[in-house]
Specification:
alpha+beta, Nuclear Transport Factor 2, Chain: A, two-stranded antiparallel ribbon, 24% helix, 40% strand
């Protein structure tokens, strides 16, 4: 039986909510009956982990077009936690990455790390990934925690900020390979001192 996901997404074989990453952990996968099937599943899971690692590196290195190449055309991003907002489609994602403003839940508009004065380096550290695949091998899910650091020299001296959060990714296998269809980012960034004291212009 196929279930409907929230936010008008298309049907998926498994219901995974936007607010409970344990939904991914709890998915029971069908065990492949052949060695070939086991290898194929392992390779698919490694591909999905690698997609998320690419996402982390391209995001912090500001490689917008390489980042967008990881997504489906109708990709959707949901911000939760101390941020709020939904962005749909590659054109809107490109627009946001080229002019990133973080909409805080308390009403502030926070600048991205690149907009904070001074020479800053951002690192997105992703850990504890759990990957699950649908029985037909055409859909996938990954949940993980992350820690993001932002540090560098400012007029006041060396500054370091850090915040944590979690991800849920939805993937689909297309003719050109696996792509990120949707992801939820639950983040504490609005409480990070590197961002919390700044407001977007």
């Amino acid at each position: 039986m196929r279930h409907k996901l929230v936010d008008d997404m298309e049907d998926w074989t498994v219901a995974v909510s936007e607010t409970n990453r344990i939904d991914v952990v709890a998915i029971k996968e069908k065990e492949p009956t052949s060695l070939e099937g086991r290898i194929e599943r392992l390779e698919a899971k490694e591909t999905l982990r690698d997609l998320v690692m690419q996402y982390a590196h391209y995001t912090t290195n500001r490689e917008v077009e390489k980042l967008l190449a990881l997504f489906t055309d109708d990709v959707e991003r949901v911000l939760l936690g101390s941020l709020t907002g939904i962005t749909r489609g590659k054109p809107k994602m490109r627009e946001w990455y080229n002019n990133p403003i973080l909409p805080a839940r308390d009403g502030r508009s926070l600048p991205s790390s690149r907009a904070i004065p001074g020479s800053r380096t951002t690192r997105n550290l992703v850990g504890s990934p759990v990957v699950r695949l649908s029985d037909d091998g055409k859909e996938g899910w990954l949940t993980a925690h992350f820690s993001s650091t932002n540090s560098g020299e400012t007029k006041e001296g060396f500054v370091r900020g850090v915040h944590e959060g979690s991800y849920i990714f939805w993937f689909v296998k297309q003719s050109d390979g696996w792509k990120i269809k949707k992801w939820v980012c639950e983040t504490e960034v609005a409480h990070d001192p590197a961002y919390a004291s700044a407001r977007a212009k």
